Amino acid sequence: MSEPLLDVRGLEAGYGNTRVLFGVDLQVAVGGVTALLGANGAGKTTTLRALCGMVRRRGTITLAGQRIDALATEEIVRLGVAHVPDGRGTFAGLTTEENLLLGACTRSDRAAVRDDFERLYGYFPRLKERRHQQAGTLSGGEQQMLAIARALMLRPRLLLLDEPSFGLAPMVVQDIFRIMRRVRAEQGVAILLVEQNAALALELADTACLLETGRVVLAGPAAAVGNNEAVQAAYLGGE
Ligand code: ATP
């Protein structure tokens, strides 16, 4: 990989006295997609939280050559890192459009923000139909789309995407991944993707790492990780 967009070395993090990450190394290429795989409790969500400064962490985190490991979440967001948390975190009482506007709250280029509404509605026509509807009344799939669209309103360089398929019907998941492939190709946004559905994640990703109890135990091109026997057995139905 030429100089990665995101370069993480020796990342440690935890909650109170409980350590969860024990020296995680991972990279995301400029415009690339890295999948972070692993069983429940391996520390995937904690990795994303640590990267955006939401939990205490140690180690070096470099974004486009700049150290960000001592920065506050707000500063990291301003540098173009958008986080779509598990559980989505949309504001239930606000409309779709108001949620999208909040995603752009760090931007001052108002005309470009208006253009981005249309661009995002192009990717997510369902959100356009529901632009005046309260987010809390949207379906699970629509809320996931809104969470992703809101993050994209930041015009991020890097999207941290936590379990976008969680709790959704297979058709809706397919739809979301199809849109993500388009967004990636057209917007050049890099993605660090946490996903239980390893087959889908490996289809979208160029590279992948497997996390086990807070350590990366396997990393490499997505195809190679997908062909690994242990990954096949544990995450891909053991064919
Ligand atoms: P899952 O797919 O189940 O979310 P994960 O790989 O994302 O798994 P994490 O959510 O990062 O795993 O959790 C890693 C460990 O940290 C788990 O043992 C979990 O119980 C613990 N943990 C997560 N959040 C907290 C918290 N807020 N306080 C204390 N411990 C936590």
TrEMBL record:
InterPro entries referenced in this protein's UniProt entry, alphabetically: AAA+_ATPase (IPR003593), ABC_transporter-like_ATP-bd (IPR003439), ABC_transporter-like_CS (IPR017871), BCAA_Transport_ATP-bd_LivF (IPR052156), P-loop_NTPase (IPR027417)
Matching SMART domains: AAA
Transmembrane is among the record's keywords: no
Coiled coil: none
Keywords, sorted A to Z: Amino-acid transport, ATP-binding, Cell membrane, Membrane, Nucleotide-binding, Transport
Source species, domain of life: Bacteria
Residue span, ABC transporter domain: 6-238
CDD domains: ABC_TM1139_LivF_branched (cd03224)
A GO molecular-function annotation: ATP binding
GO term, biological process aspect, one: L-amino acid transport
Family stated for the protein in its record: Belongs to the ABC transporter superfamily.
Protein name: ABC transporter ATP-binding protein
Species whose genome carries this gene: Ramlibacter albus
Source taxonomy: Bacteria, Pseudomonadati, Pseudomonadota, Betaproteobacteria, Burkholderiales
